[in-house]
Amino acid sequence: MSETGRDLFDFVDRRTALKIVGGFAIAFVVLGLIAYGIGLDKIQRELARADPRWLAAGCLSTAVGLVAWAKAWQVVLRVVGYRVPFRKLVVTYYAATFANYVTPLGQAGGEPFIAYVLSRDTEASYEDSLASVVTADLLNLLPFFTFAAIGTVVLVVRTTLSQQVRGVAGILVVFAIGVPVVAVVGWRSRRRLGSFVLRVAAPVVRRVRFLSVEDLRERLRELNTAFERIAADRRALAHALVYSFVGWLFFALPLYAAVEAVGREISIFLVFFIVPASTLAGLTPSPGGLAGVEAALAGLLGTLGGFSFATGLSIAIVYRLASYVFAVLTGGVAALYVVSRS
């Protein structure tokens, strides 16, 4: 087993493994209770009619989306001076996605771990890796909110939104405004922010042997330098942003495929609203937002799409098979390959 392979699964100690298994178990129980409450027979009938060709199309769309995001990674990495072969980087991205998707709350803050995997599997330093990962994630937020804004505008024009849906739209608007503001303020105050982190972490660092305060100060300095190099190359950022938009488009399309799979129809603009809105449920403390995302999808599809809750949950299940389950399975294969790669 390679050093990178060992590092990739260092995070899966016994306690973490129990949390992962427990998270999946609880999520499946909750999802089963939701399905039971709606009606298992109704859901089974809907799923029995699902067209596997549309499911395959959804899986292919997810694969293209992940590849596009990996390409955005590559573009940002080039700015900090690392040329990683794309075929190798795609495998690393899939493996990191697997770790992110199976870890409870991984979606809420997996950048440090993804950067660690990237630094161990390439020649990039951890600081450069973290700067590239955070930058790529921030770039991915722009298409996220763009698609959500397009869907919201169309919904407002065409329909009368319920109080619950207005609340979701309001949250998306808050995020759309708040995240860029926080990013800009954080960037302009990065030196003071770094000094604050150093002051807070110093008492802890002094108690450990493997890191000194001076080492931490140097790493923060290198991280800031990496961010500055990336920010200075606006052409590369625009190039990466194109791949981010492509990735988000193909990340959303599996929901459209899932609706078609069960023999129903949906507006693509409604998909642009529902996918970002349901993604907010991915912040629930379960692996990949399991159960939370499905429940949110069923509710949104029922409220906005006019589907029954049985049809909405069936669509949600097909969508998650084509997106989440497919990403976990392919990412798991990629992780095994990284483990065995010498």
TrEMBL record:
Instruction: Offer one Pfam family short name for this entry.
Output: LPG_synthase_TM
Print the keywords alphabetically. Answer: Cell membrane, Membrane, Transmembrane, Transmembrane helix
**Which subcellular locations apply to this protein?**
Cell membrane
Q: How does it sit in the membrane?
A: Multi-pass membrane protein
Principal location: membrane
Give the transmembrane region(s): 20-40, 52-73, 93-118, 130-156, 168-187, 236-259, 265-283, 295-315, 321-339
What do the Gene Ontology cellular component annotations say? plasma membrane
- UniProt keyword annotation of Cell membrane present: yes
- Could you name the domain of life of the organism this protein comes from? Archaea
Q: Which family does it belong to?
A: Belongs to the UPF0104 family.
UniProt name for this protein? Uncharacterized protein
